[in-house]
Amino acid sequence: MKVPVEWLKSLVELPAEVTTAQLADRLTMYDLKLEEIIGGGVSGPLTVGRVLAISPEQQKNGKTINWCRVDVGAQNVDSVLDAPGDDVASRGIVCGAHNFAVGDLVVVALPGTYLAALDFEIGSRKTYGHVSDGMICSTTELGLPDDASSAAGILVLPAGSAAPGDDAIALLGLGDQTLDLEVNPDRAYALSLRGVARDTALAFDLPFADPAEAVTLPTGDGGYPVRVEDPEGCPVFSTVVVTGIDPTRPTPDWLARRLTQAGMRSISLTVDISNYVMLELGQPNHCYDRAKVSGDLVVRRAEAGEQITTLDDVVRTLTPEDLVIADDSGVIGLAGVMGGASTEIGPDTTDVVVEAAHWDPTTIFRGERRHKLPSEAAKRYERGVDPALTLAGAARVAELLVELAGGRLEPGVTHVGTVRAPAPVTFAVDLPARISGVDITPELTQDVLERNGCVVERDGATFVVSPPTWRFDLNDPYDFVEEALRSAGYENVPSVLPTPTGGRGLSREQELRRRVGHVLAGAGLTEVTTLPFVGPAHLDRLGLAPTDERRRQVLLANPLSREEPGLTTTLLVGLLRAASLNVGRGHDVVQISEVGRVFLPAADEVAAPIYGVDARPTAEQLAALDAALPYQPHHVGLVLVGERERTGWDGPGRPAAWSDAVAVLRRVAQVLHVEVAVRAAQVAPYHPGRCAELVLADGTVVGHAGELHPAVAAEHGLPGRVGVGEIDLDLMLAAAPPIGPKPSFSTFPVAKEDLAFVVDESVPAESVRSALAAASDLVESVRLFDVYTGDQVPQGRRSLAFSLRLRAPDRTLTDADIKAARDAAVRAVETEFSATLR
């Protein structure tokens, strides 16, 4: 909302010492946030000039410039010897625009003028073979909005509006400043000078005279006939008739200037008055050419297929959801949005029907979006306009038409419908002070609310407040707390930081998740965070079967995209999208990981209850909310694309393999002190021959790792073999032992033994490793370092070689200790797997 400061000061008497910056700061603290201060950026000799002569000159670059002689009154020089025409006092100026003629009034920036829009000071300089003694200005150079007369370049002033030498800064209001305020949707009243002036008066503790109350309301019957067939869509409708308007009268400079500063273009006197009243009072209105209206005005829903040509000359096809205004000829207006061209005010209009109504905000919002037709009126109606203001709005338009256009107000008025009074709200008188922590007395609260237009009744320790018709945001006690706090000052709310409980630190889960993050980073993986929104198409790209449990999603009631209506059940969707994006941008090595939640719907889903926000939920209510939540475990996911070991001066690199993904997740298990077994599996989206599942000691499968299926890799545009993995971190944390004191390490020497066993090819290497690790208390670690199949091993069998580290916590091992541990290890493998020692 653009608020001209000069206009605002005409509605509330601000002290002279209050600067525009101070006004903006105070309004910002009143929830009317300042976007920028516009204007006041032109200084120096900016004057009105009359074009005396124009001499077009063709240049070598193909451009035609005009060498002009301009009369600027007292600012003329004695003569311009090389200017066209007679040697009379004037200024010679070079201009490249062509939308003006001899005799036109223009705005001339003489040497020494500073134009903020250009951040430039005008000087006298030689150009195109002439000394240009100033500049003929366009609206852009002056920082003004374009209008029809200046769309092609130079601003041409209306004939007779000024004389050569007049101060153009004062004429155009370029010394005035305008506040551009951000108005929140719940403060629709501030989309008017009336609303901003009321808040200004409150902010500076000044008296306020409501301009709507100064309007003389017409009375009596006999106004233009109206029939409202949809009272839900149009609760109130008012009309007055003004005749005898002089269509030749120009818009007064003060009115046109205020419209321009408020961001609107001056069109004609009648239309300008209509827009002026909308900005002044916040009540949109519409003027119909009475000669073009036939029969009663009817407010109704459109019939399917009806059409209207709106004021923007676009033919629009209507639906029964559209609320319209019609007469005997058909639809003549799209209610609350835009009028029709058939009854538009023209250059010969002398009689008008002035209409002001209150429309249902939801209907206007939907109609505006349906027809993609934003308008200043619709912007106000969809947020809520004071329903008690319709008659005053129409009367104010009529008042100005009589005063400025020479019209005559016809006797009688049509006023259909009634205004529904807002419901009163009851709350304790000390509520504002208790909620805000500021010393807001009941007397201050009552004074602030009454100055806001509320009717306040105090009954002992209770207020009963009826909000005004223009405050749609005052509905519960805490809205009134906010209103009282605005006047008390948000800056006075005490800033008290909560005192943390000492010595708590990280929780067990946080500590363990942090360890996992360190492991992933240490493995060379870059942490990413992906969006959790997923659709069926993404699960199709993973190659999941129709019966796969991961296809059951938690669906969102209001998704950001119809293609992504649910929450993810696997981190691989987001990780593969991220890897694909980075590969597409030229990265040949992408090795990423994520620790995040997945969302798994419960077998018996429960709808979440909706509670009010006026009180803390009870323990039972919190339990009911928790019961409705889906299961949201933390998972760890990773994707490895490209070289795991980079090619360098020391030799070729090594591409990432399925075993690298397994190794990283095993390292995660190791840092959590969780024993996991690795065994072959077949699960989408993994390669059927290169997929491992990670299993806890109790048989619980906590995740999978391996190589991505080639078809899935190709679907995502990923080159080569891609390592992927995902585990349920919450299950791993549950299986992890308690975090205790840091373990002590044995300082005694280690003994090393290498053992190779011949086993059936079907025996997993992990099973043999586990058997060796459990064979003796002296076994500190077991590592597989060789797998061999060949001539020296029978068909259907393979050789697995392991390195064992043996150590005791309290002594140096003897040869007998080492032999006993070695024999126990060999015996365990030979017994369990029918193995033979090589």
Kindly describe this structure:
Helix content is 26%, strand content 26%. It has 6 domains: 2-40 and 177-209, Phenylalanyl-tRNA Synthetase, Chain B, domain 1, CATH 3.30.56.10; 42-172, OB fold (Dihydrolipoamide Acetyltransferase, E2P) (Beta Barrel), CATH 2.40.50; 226-416, Phenylalanyl-tRNA Synthetase, Chain B, domain 3 (3-Layer(bba) Sandwich); 425-492, Phenylalanyl-tRNA Synthetase, Chain B, domain 1; 508-598 and 633-735, Bira Bifunctional Protein, Domain 2 (BirA Bifunctional Protein, domain 2, 2-Layer Sandwich); 751-837, Alpha-Beta Plaits (2-Layer Sandwich), CATH 3.30.70.380. The radius of gyration is 40 Å and the shape is elongated. A 7-stranded mixed beta sheet has the order 30-33-34-40-39-38-37, sandwiched between helices. Strands 4, 5, 6, 7, 12 and 13 form a 6-stranded antiparallel beta sheet that branches. Strands 15-18-21-22-23 form a 5-stranded mixed beta sheet. The protein starts with a strand and ends with a strand. The protein has 838 residues and is an alpha+beta fold.
